[in-house]
């Protein structure tokens, strides 16, 4: 299905996007079981449970530790390697979640059949859309009462502005669920695990497999559905304009193999990655990759970090020297980590689409690229405007230096963003999720021995600003001095009291561009 020159093994590098409770953990577990990593199943479950206990630091720490090993899960199915990148759920929602989606080639969107599209699904979907990430939809929990397939598909089409192509059709839902009809494959999947070929909907065999009522309803619905929705078009799927819709139950392991087959047969091989001046093709010689996530290691006593690099081209071999963008420094990667679901293994080689963990002491930052030759600049690795801004107040004012160092480190890790206001010396931290603030305070206290409080700030949101002409920038900055700040790279940022303030100011400043995302260069 995918055209690759010989020699380079294929990959499916994907993420699951969903709202909490839609069944992501359960589905992940079933995918890993299908991929033979059975003994991890319990671990995934355990993670699901600990994740729910939020504010207790030990638990956050525990979860962070575990998520180092489970942020990437590699499994094999049918001779093909799948890299599943975890996007942390609701409570631990942070920029990490967004950025992980820059490292995948496709996504599976899991929707609860009763709840349909929820807030978090939509947020994550928008990030996928920024990069035209192709999405396969899996409507989960068909074993429970849910909305009608029409309702669900119309909702996806309307709310996400995507064409939908039904690939499976449930014969009833909840108590009336009797199986799944494979629209293109002309097969009936029955709950006891049987798969029966049928010769279209008129095949009388359907009447022997289903109750009279279910058969009649299925015939009517599929006819309407197939007529009413578009047929699957792979080009449209690959461009992010169409989503094929599958149904199933992760809990009952029903419809899961079909989902894996869809990933195998429809989802893209490692795609060229956006870069300046030209995209980097996976077939290009020479190793290139970018860091999309940095995570402190499990032991908080050691300042070790693991940088997660997505390999974009070339064949990576252990011990290779790679040049870091920005600094131009060569880094020898002696003990890269691969993430086979059973264990963290030291990688000897890796290919485009693979994720390797690079232990380091803080030299690698999110957005950095690494290359065998001349460093490349990957584009589209944005920072996102924070939705919560707080002032940092030191309890012991002699610890200013330690605080600066700590905030520098933590902003490199992507735990928070730090802004330096033009007026005053108090730093502002910005996050997209509340849990990031809790993590910040705990880590300041435990790792950096800095006792700090977070206080309300007069600002609600931030925008990176840019102009075409330097005088315009200078004029804007002097006019709005009390709302100006710089981010950690020295880029100018406008702090707005609220959206009204933002709209008002931006409306009056036509030569200034306000951006809710910032690309690292
Ligand atoms: P996550 O928050 O998205 O990771 O969701 P989980 O996988 O933890 O699932 C949330 C709840 O839904 C758990 O109680 C699961 O047992 C349940 N669940 C998951 N999949 C299914 C399914 O297919 N059918 C039913 N009935 N329950 C499910």
Automatic annotation (TrEMBL):
Pfam families: EF-G_D2, GTP_EFTU, RF3_C. It is found in: Cytoplasm. Residues 9-271 form the Tr-type G domain. GO terms for biological process: regulation of translational termination. Keywords: Cytoplasm, GTP-binding, Nucleotide-binding, Protein biosynthesis. Increases the formation of ribosomal termination complexes and stimulates activities of RF-1 and RF-2. It binds guanine nucleotides and has strong preference for UGA stop codons. It may interact directly with the ribosome. The stimulation of RF-1 and RF-2 is significantly reduced by GTP and GDP, but not by GMP. This is Peptide chain release factor 3. It comes from Sphingomonas prati.
